[in-house]
Amino acid sequence: MKKQSLLTGLAILTLAVLPVNHVAAQTATPSATPTAASAQLEELKVRLATKVAELRSVVKRAMYGTVKSVTLTSATVETKTKDIKIELTDDVTISQVVGGKRVNLDAEDLAADDPITVFGTYDETLDLLKAQYIFIESATSYTRIAGIVVDVDDEDFVLTVNTSEGKTMLVDIEKTTKTSEWTRENGIAKSGFSKLTVGDTVHITGTPAAKEDNRLSAVRILNLGNITGSAGTPTATTAVTPTASASATPRATPRPTAVPTATP
Fold first, then answer.
1. CATH number for the 143-232 domain, one of 2.40.50.320, 2.60.120.970, 3.40.50.620, 3.40.190.170?
2. Which residues have C-beta within 8 Å of that of residue 16, sequence separation ≥ 6?
3. Where are the domains of the chain?
4. Is 93 helix (H, G, I), strand (E, B) or coil?
5. pLDDT digits (tens, 9 = 90+) for 151-183
6. Are strands 128-136 and 187-190 parallel, antiparallel or unpaired?
7. Phi, psi of 43 (to 5 degrees)
8. Which ranges in the chain belong to alpha helices (H)?
9. Local structure of 142: helix, strand or coil
C-alpha cells in the first residue's frame, strides 16, 4: 500500500513538473526573435536613410554664369558665388538666338567668356552640374534673380519673391513677359502666369523699376516648381532662357522701367 502510494505521488509530481518544463522550453526558443527583428529594422532604417540622402543630393537646377574654360566633355562656369563644373553629356542641347531665331549649336561652339544659362541635375556629392540644356545669352543688360514665390497677385499680375539673398522682390508680369517651366523629364515647355503658385522656385530675368530697388519688370520667367529640402535652395546667379512663349494676360499698361545696369 505504501509502495502504491509512493508511485502515485511520483506520477503526480512528474505530471506537475512536465508542463512547466514544456512551457519553459517554448518561451526560451523565441527569445532570439526580437533580437533578429531589431537587427532587420535597423538595417532597413539605414537603407532608407541612404536612399533619401541619394535622392536629396541630386536635384534639378538652373544656373547662370560666364564660361571660364571649356573642353569637349566639361566646362567651368564662373558665377557670383563660386565656380561650377559642368558636365557636357552626349544628349545636351545647346542653343542661341541669332538674328531673332533660335539655332542649335554643338559643344565645340561654347567659348570662354560666353554668358550662359544651364539647366540640368546638380549632384551635391560631386559638386557637379550635369547639363541637359545650355542657352548662350546675349550680351544685354538685365537683372537676374532666383527665389521662392511667397505671394501671387492674380489681379495686378504681380509676384512676390523671396530671393536667396534675403530680399523680397516684387515682379511685375507684362504683356511681353515670356514664361516657361522646366522639368528633368520634359525639359523646357511653354507655361503661363496661372501656373505659378506659392512655393515655386523661379528664375527671373527683368529690368528694374524706376525708383524702386525691390521691383522688377519681368522679361522672362522660368518655373522649376516646388522644390523641397536645402538642395532646392536657389542660387542668386540663376537666370532663364528666352525660349518660352508669352503666357498670362497681364495688365495693359506696363510699369515704367529704368535704364538697366550691366550685370557681369
1. 2.40.50.320
2. none
3. 58-136, 143-232
4. strand
5. 999 999 999 999 878 899 999 999 889 998 887
6. unpaired
7. -65, -40
8. 2-28, 32-57
9. coil
Q: Which residue has the higher pLDDT, 71 or 98?
A: 71
Q: Which CATH architecture has domain 58-136?
A: Beta Barrel (2.40)
* Pairwise CA distance, residues 165 & 144, whole Å: 12
Looking at this protein, which amino acid is placed at residue 39? A
**Per-residue CA distances from 12 to 4, 19, 22 (Å):** 12, 12, 16
From CA 79, how far away is CA 107, in angstroms rounded?
20
58-136 matches 143-232 in fold = yes
- Cell numbers found for residue 253: 499698361
Query: Lowest-pLDDT range, 40-44, 184-188, 194-198, 252-256?
Result: 252-256
The closest of 125, 115, 217 to 174, measured between CA atoms, is: 217
User: pLDDT at position 8, please?
Assistant: 54
Q: Give the integer Cα–Cα distance in Å for 243 and 178.
A: 8
Calpha distance 196→221 (Å, rounded): 10
Q: Which three cell numbers stand for residue 27?
A: 518561451
**Chain centroid to CA 10: how far?**
79
Name the DSSP class of 174. P
Nearest to 163 by CA among 180, 176, 149: 149
